[in-house]
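Project outcomes to date are best conveyed with an example. Our students and postdoctoral researchers have been running inverse folding experiments weekly, and each run begins with a structure described purely in tokens. The record below, which covers 308 residues, was selected by the lab manager from last quarter's runs and is presented without edits.
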């Protein structure tokens, strides 16, 4: 019989976790609301993460339970929605997603190999974009900019095969011959690619999607020590006063993005060791530091005991 009782989520939450996982669990950290409810009923303390709007109200017997320690979200609008849905405000903290500390490890030799591979036709400057291949992320915009700067090599990392093929066709139609789409890059290879660039581009467009964008990609950029050009979208405005971003420009403005890239390339010569001030400022956004902040909101009496 198909239905709620036989759904994968129900099977995992009601049967698998209580039998196989909970006996060995000191505290649960999850995005799954059904799993939160099951854990509380089994006496397991919970850290809950919420990334999107919820369609129903929160069960007060769960969120008011002392075992429900903290709810974490990455955006103010999601925090407001959680409160409207009945989440106690004092149990909510807003924290950005964190980057893996592997992005802080300098990889000069792999970075050099990337430059040898990607800098073709006597080009000396490399602009890299890393992320999803979507119009709202500014990919189309950056292709337009690339056409205006034929002496600079533009490289896009990310996207599935069909997206790559579609954007390769777009670049051909626009006669942007200085554009390369790498497709998906294994996570362990991404730090060296970011370190190989002269400038990293974060060209996100305006619109509704901009209000939900996580700055995680920006944090990975910061950790590379490579100068960054970013558009002025709401989630990034809190970083505008820092020195971690080399250049800012309006979203949806290819002419301004072109000028900004040119200015940063002229102002910031390539540094194989990365720009130290940018790296140091970005360290606060590592995943490890994020977890430390979360645990500071968890009662000390239920902190996990780590055995030798």
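After processing, the design step wrote out the following sequence:
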């Amino acid at each position: 019989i198909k239905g709620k009782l036989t759904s994968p989520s129900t099977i995992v939450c009601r049967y698998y976790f209580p039998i196989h996982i909970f006996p060995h669990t000191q505290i649960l950290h999850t995005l799954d609301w059904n799993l939160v409810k099951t854990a509380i009923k089994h006496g397991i303390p919970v850290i809950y993460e919420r990334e999107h709007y919820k369609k129903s109200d929160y069960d007060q017997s769960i969120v008011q339970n002392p075992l429900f320690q903290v709810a974490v979200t990455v955006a103010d609008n999601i925090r407001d929605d959680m409160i409207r849905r009945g989440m106690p405000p004092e149990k909510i903290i807003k924290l950005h997603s964190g980057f893996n500390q592997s992005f802080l490890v300098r990889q000069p030799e792999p970075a050099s190999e990337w430059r040898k591979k990607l800098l073709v036709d006597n080009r000396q400057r490399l602009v890299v974009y890393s992320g999803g291949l979507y119009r709202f992320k500014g990919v189309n915009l950056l292709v337009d900019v690339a056409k205006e700067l034929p002496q600079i090599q533009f490289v896009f990392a990310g996207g599935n095969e069909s997206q790559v093929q579609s954007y390769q066709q777009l670049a051909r139609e626009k006669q942007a011959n200085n554009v390369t789409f790498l497709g998906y890059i294994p996570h362990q290879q991404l730090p060296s690619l970011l370190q190989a660039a002269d400038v990293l581009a974060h060209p996100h467009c305006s619109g509704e999607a901009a209000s939900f964008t996580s700055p995680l990609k920006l944090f990975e950029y910061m950790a590379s020590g490579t100068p960054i050009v970013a558009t002025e979208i709401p989630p990034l405005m809190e970083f505008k006063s820092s020195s971690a971003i080399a250049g800012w420009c309006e979203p949806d403005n290819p002419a301004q993005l072109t000028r900004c890239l040119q200015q940063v390339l002229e102002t910031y010569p390539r540094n194989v060791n990365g720009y130290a001030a940018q790296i140091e400022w970005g360290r606060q956004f590592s995943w490890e530091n994020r977890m430390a902040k979360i645990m500071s909101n968890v009662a000390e009496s239920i902190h996990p005991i780590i055995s030798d």
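The beta strands are 28-30, 46-50, 68-73, 92-94, 125-130, 152-157, 179-183, 199-202, 228-231, 247-249. The longest helix spans residues 8-21. The training component of this project remains on track.
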